[in-house]
Structures are given as C-alpha cells and as structure tokens.
What does this fold into?
Amino acid sequence: MKKVLKCLIIFILVFSGFDLFGKNISFQIDFSSRYIWRGFDLNPYRKPVVQPSMNWDLGESGFSFNLWSSLSFVGKDLHEFDVTLSYSREIAEVLSIEAGLIHYAWYFTENFTFKDDTSHEIFVSVGLPHFLFEPTLNLFYDFTVGDGFYGQLEIGHSFSVLKNVEAGLYSSLGYNGGQWLAEGTDPGFSDLNFGLSFSWKTGRFFAAAFTNYTFVLLKAISRENHFWFGVSLGYH
It folds into this structure.
C-alpha cells in the first residue's frame, strides 16, 4: 500500500511540471476496483488498482505521447508501465484514423529482463466520430511476448443530464486471434463489454464515476465474467 502511494505521488509531481509548456498536457487518475483488460483479470484476487496517466498532444503534428501505469495492491510484480506513441487524423470531418506503437512493461518483476517482461504492440483505429453511436474498429498486433492479434468493435454515446454533467454509454466486442493465449488455443470472440459513466467538468478539471461488466466468451481467458467500478479524476 505505501509503495503504491509513493509511486503515485512521484508520478504526479514529475509530470505535473509538463503543464508549464502549454495546454497540450492532460492528466488522469483512475481508482478502479479491478483491472480487467480484453477479458483477462490482470490483478488477481479481485483487488483494486490505481491507474494514473499523462498524455502529451504534440500540437498540430497529429502525434501524441502517452504514459500510463497500473499500480497493484497485490504485489509490485504486477505494477505495469506503458508508453504509447500515436498519430491521428480526421478526414473530411467524417473519418478518424489513429495508428501507433505501445510498449508494455512490468519493470518491478523479480529478475526483470526486457526479453521476458516487456511486450510491444502496433495498432490502427478507424472511427466514424459524427455518426450515431460513433462506431470504431480497433486492430492490435503484439509482435513480441504477447504474440498475436486482437480486434475490437466499439460503440458509445454521451448526453447531457445536468449542467456540466454528462452520462456515457459504452459497449465493445473483442476478438482474440491468439494474443496472450497458450499455444494451440483456438481463436474466437473473447469479450463483450458494457459500461456506464457519469462525468462532471468545470474548466479543465473533471471527475467521473464508472461501472463496467464484461462477459468472457473464450474459456481460455476465464471461466467467469467480471464486474468492476471506479472513479476518475483528471485535468484535460
């Protein structure tokens, strides 16, 4: 617990200084009851996690740089640190495209090695941001430890409920083509997700509460479904 809080404090102090360079920096901290990712339970024993992130939008270039981490209350070997470099563009105010590279790392693993405890993924996302439910297709390919393909179709909709308060609905369907699965496991639809959130914003500050439910469709991932919830605080 103390180590998690120390890491969180250091993260905030270090990256809050970036805001001196302009308004292209945003921060967010999620406090979540569980860490569910593509149907996998990445923080066992149903323990909570703290997940801070910092995003740096590199002006009109279309590039952005993101640092994200998950700090576990179970053990330091489950602390995860991810770095993402991406490029995005909107075409004719109809189609949005994003592509990039993600570096996943578990630096606090005992006897850490880059070969075994980091993984790398390329991705492409294509969306229709101005259409009903804003459908987006996300394609990921891990070319190192995770070694495999994952695809996801997601939809969502947000609407105002009170002054400065928005509600958001979200759903996604994932397909696992062998990513992070045991050798010989058949691919298939892996996870069906539903989410509900309420967010409040004033100026560049916001707070949100969220709840999610995941139906796991692939037994190689899990034999149980997942429910989790949490709150987010941010400066965008």
